[in-house]
Target: Homeobox domain-containing protein
Amino acid sequence: MINVTIEINVSIKINVSSMINVTITSSVKSCKQIENNNNNNSRRKSWSRAVFSSLQRKGLEKRFIIQKYITKPDRRQLAGTLGLTDAQVKVWFQNRRMKWRQTIQKKQHIAMQQFENVSNLIVSIPSNKDISNKLQSTDN
Model:
């Protein structure tokens, strides 16, 4: 017999200032599983994910275009401006760099495939000697 208890808390934080920042955090507080009444084996899983507003995403993307690797002071300043934590900005930049690298690799792969396709279409041009040999063989 398996008994599962899950508690889910959702908190919404709205900060109204010169810009509207919305942070939504959801987390699973506890997950207990009891199998065959054996000593109450329990595991705790915690999960939270920030949902960025469109204004926050635009601000982060704008900075990423200018600066792929953000310094600590710049990161703190950007976090304060957008109403995010330093850690959120740091992780966002790490994830965005991974996405950027994958995009570059895909473009390089496509370009390489196109190059290979074109190079396979190139036909060798016969030399004068080859042409004269063919003409002689058809005359006979």
In short: The mean pLDDT is 76. DSSP finds four helices and three strands in the chain. The longest strand covers residues 20-35.
